[in-house]
Structure formats: C-alpha cells, structure tokens
Amino acid sequence: MDPVNATNRSTTGPRPGRRPLVGAVTGVLAAVAGLAVAELAAAAVRPEAAPLTAVGGALVDLTPVGLREWAIRLFGTSDKAALGIGIVLVLAAVAAGTGILALRSLPAAIAVTGGIGVLGAVAALSRPEASWKDSLPSLMGALASAAVLYLLVTVATRPRPADGTPAGTWPLDRRGFGRLAAAVVLLSAGIGYAGRRLGAYGSSGATASRADFVLPPPTVPAAPVPAGAQLPVPGISPFITPNGDFYRVDTALVVPRVNADDWRLTVHGDGVTRPLTLDLRELLARPLVEHDITLCCVSNEVGGPYVGNARWLGVRLGDLLREAGVRPPSQGGTADQLVARSVDGMTIGTPVEAVMDGRAALLAVGMNGQPLPFAHGFPVRMVVPGLYGYVSACKWLTELRLTTFAAYDAYWVRRSWAQQAAVKTQSRIDTPRPGSRVDPGRVAVAGVAWAQHRGIDRVEVRVDGGAWQEARLGAADGVDVWRQWVWPWEATPGRHTLEVRATDGTGAVQTGVRTGTVPDGATGWHTVEVSVGGLGALGGAGGRGKQGPWS
C-alpha cells in the first residue's frame, strides 16, 4: 500500500464508516440551532408562532376524532406533552436524515431544510388570529438551520493537507469538529434561553395583573357546603376539587396568558340591540354570584377522571345578554346559539335558551376563592351547569356572538361532535380501586355521582350481577353539584365485580348500555373488579374498612 495515499485518505473528512453518524449529528445540531432562532423570533411575534407550537396546533386540528380520543385515554391530561415529544422525535429523525443527505448533496439537504421551514410557516399561518408575522419564526429558523448545516458539513468534509500545513484549508480533526459542535449547542442553548426569557417577559404583565387582581366580594354568596357533603371515606374524591387538581382538557399547547388590564369582551350578533364592549373593571361592576358547579368533559369515559367540582364566582351570563337586548328563542329571539370565542381562536357554541333559562350560567372570574388560574381561563371564562364543557365552558373568553345553529358550526361540531350535549347521568367508584386486593369483611365501596341541573336522588351498587343495593348519599349541595355516596359491603373471599348506577332528580335511571364518548358523551355503568382475601390489603383506600360514620 502506498503510505502517501493512505495518509491522504485518512485526512480527507470523516472515515466512510463514520459518515452516517457525522451526518446525523450535523443534521440534528442544525435543527437545534434553527429551533432556537425560531424561539427567539417567536418571542417578538407571539408564542403561538413558534414552529413546534404551530405544527402541534395544526396536528391537533387535523387529528381524527377517534385518534384524539385514544390519545386522551392513553396519556390523559399529558396528551399535549406526548404530542410535543412525538413532534420532537419525528423532527430529530428528519433532521438526522437531512444531515446524512447533506454529506452527499448539500444543496438538496438545504432545500429540504427550507421546505420544513415553509411547512412550519404554513402551519403558523393556519392558526386562529394569525397574521403574516406568524410565518417569520419558522422561516428564520429554517435559514439559521441551513446556515449551520452548511458550516458543519463544509468543515466535516473539507480535506486536510497530508503534511499538516494550512494550504488554504481549515483543518479540523475529530476533536476540533467536536468542539465546533459543542459551540453550536452552547450558542443554540443561549439563543433558546433568551427566547424563553423574552417570551416570559412578554407575559410578565399578565402574571403581574393576576397577582394584583383581588376578587370582589360576591353580591350573592353561596351557602356554606352542607355538613355531610364530604363523606369520611379514605380514597373518595374531595367534594371540592383543588384548583391544582382540576382536570384540564383543551387544544391549547401554550396556555394563553392574558393581561387583565388589556382584556376586552364584545357582545354582538343576531338579536343584539345594544352591542357591548366591556373591560374587566366594567364587567366586575355588575352583580357577582357565587355558585358551586360540577364540570365534566365530554371525552370522559365511564368512570373517567375528567370531572371536578368548584365554587365559582362570576356575572350571570343571562343578565348580560338581556342587557344587550337578547331574547331567548322561547320569547321570540332570533338567535338560538351563543358562540363564545377564546383569545386563541377556539369557538364553543352554547344554546341561548340554556344560558337564559335561569340556571347559574356564569362569566366566571373566580375559582375556589382565587382568581382563575391561567390554565383555567384567567381572567374570564364561561361556566354553564348541565352542559358538557365543549358546548359551554369557553376559557380565555374574548367574544360572545349571537347566531343560529343552522348558520354556524363551532370548532368541535366540525369534528363530528354533536351541536348540543347535556350532561348525562354518571356515577363512579373511587374506592376500592380497579384490580385492588382487600381483606374479607366490611369494605367501604364509595365514589361520586353527577347529573348537573337535575341532581342525584339515588345511587345503587351491586356485586357480581346480583340485586341492586342502595348506597348512602352525602348531603346535597344543589342540583348542579355531584354527590358522594358510600355502601358497606360485606366482602367474601374470591374475585368480585362491583357495579354502580345512579338515578337523577327526574327519576331517570342511568343506563347500562355502553357507548363511547362521540358524539355527545359516554354511557354505561362503571365496573370495578377486586380480589378479596389472599395477601391482604394493598393500602388504606382499598383495604378493609372499619365500621364507622360511613357505614
């Protein structure tokens, strides 16, 4: 072998066996740099314009209903995080492939990078309330990514002279390339951090406005929660759900942070004789009502977790609509649908009749004695008892438009959900947990039941398909609130199946027919299988209960 030629081969770029690895690393580094620049650019536009957020939002819109419901069942309220991780992994794979391509054809790889940037820009422009500026972060990120790709590929493949002299080249060995790659990572991290800090600075006004916001006292305060509403049973859901534990199901990949000082609400549309535009101070000048209301999501499977109870403070929505001159259809009004719009463009359609029939439909500003958390709609959201959230509970509210169901389909209706959806009677076993093991003897079977705007009159439990046994109910806190229940079960050794059903305030018994969540909510009896005996209890909530005040 010619030693000179061998030396030349060893000093001309990465070894053939390492070229794919070098290319993949190069592509990923270029993508990281591009995302960092895009993050910085989005801080100057708006958070929703960031490529990952824009693409994620577009994917949520395009996801078939069945796949979305599967994701919610699989990931729960972490579905957005799972989507973000999935997007990052796909992008990393594409970036790695682009880097490998760049070692063969740098122009082709740069074209692919530009195409990805265009896709991100298109996704950003498709988002609600988007302007041409929303395309800039993706395009600037693609430009930065292409520049880094060019730099790294040029350095990685440029030959070094065999004798080690410069000869007009930039000689970098493996360590030198590693140092350059590390510099790219550090610079990207700094740019990305600056973007995040600037984004946080942009939302600091909203944070300060919430910190300074003091809830006014209610004009009509709610009565104290009745004694006995919270049953003393370990493992049962708390009667009032803490704000931090309240379920959240929405499409916002970035939680909107609205400055209360800048917030405005407009009321207009069909049948509105006196259009309104209100700021928060003007809204709060109206009588404030406090009311306990249980909310639940239409995506909640039988026995699912997407239900919670809170004490809400707000302005009666029906009164505000009457102030605008609106009449319900039963009184000759022309509009039968109230379309609520969020600051992020989400639209939710609610029957006008429902919000004006006297129920406690609220424009809520407070939740459990605190200003609304950002994740739950600060500064103002809708709460309408008796309707699933997707047709009533618009968060980050900014517009109320009166129209008809025939003229307009709101966001979820365009995705195969029903136009109108009253909450169905449901009951859930909280303890013992599915698959748990308990000791023989008396066991507390307990949980919650809800039928908002109708109330719960009875809950029954049965074991292994036997006769229904009536459970003891916790004290009622009105028809818009769930009720706790408990039934003392004399458990015998073996495997057993527990079922629960409820009867609402109209006398209608919860159906046992199992249906899915689409198009207007799931039905069926919640069923739990447990084992009695053997190794003993696996914890207090599912273990043997002692005879006490719940029995």
Number of strands: 19
Radius of gyration: 29 Å
Report how far the terminal alpha carbons are from each other: 92 Å
Question: Major sheet: size, sense and barrel closure?
Answer: 5 strands, mixed
Helicity level: 25-40%
Instruction: Show unreliable segments.
Output: 1-12, 167-171, 535-548
Total number of helical segments? 12
In the sheet with the most strands, the strands line up as 2-1-10-5-6
Mean pLDDT: 89
| Percent of residues in beta strands | 15-25%
Shape: globular
**Classification by helices and strands:** alpha+beta
Tag the structure with descriptive keywords.
single chain, 551 residues, alpha+beta, 5-stranded antiparallel beta sheet, 33% helix, globular
What is shown here, in short?
This protein has helices at residues 3-10, 19-45, 51-62, 65-75, 79-104, 106-125, 136-157, 174-202, 204-212, 280-284, 317-323, 352-355; strands at 264-269, 276-279, 288-296, 307-316, 337-342, 347-351, 362-367, 370-371, 381-383, 397-403, 426-431, 437-438, 441-450, 456-463, 469-470, 472-473, 483-491, 494-504, 526-532.
Would you give an account of this structure?
- The radius of gyration is 29 Å and the shape is globular.
- The N and C termini lie far apart (92 Å).
- The model is unreliable at 1-12, 167-171 and 535-548 (pLDDT under 50).
- It is of the alpha+beta class and 551 residues long.
- α2 (19-45) crosses α5 (79-104), α3 packs across α5 and α5 (79-104) runs antiparallel to α6.
- The protein has helices at 3-10, 19-45, 51-62, 65-75, 79-104, 106-125, 136-157, 174-202, 204-212, 280-284, 317-323, 352-355, and strands spanning 264-269, 276-279, 288-296, 307-316, 337-342, 347-351, 362-367, 370-371, 381-383, 397-403, 426-431, 437-438, 441-450, 456-463, 469-470, 472-473, 483-491, 494-504, 526-532.
- A 5-stranded mixed beta sheet has the order 2-1-10-5-6. Strands 3, 4, 7, 8 and 9 form a 5-stranded antiparallel beta sheet that branches.
- It is built from 12 helices and 19 strands.
- The longest helix is centred in the middle third of the chain and has 29 residues, at 174-202.
- 33% of the residues lie in helices and 21% in strands.
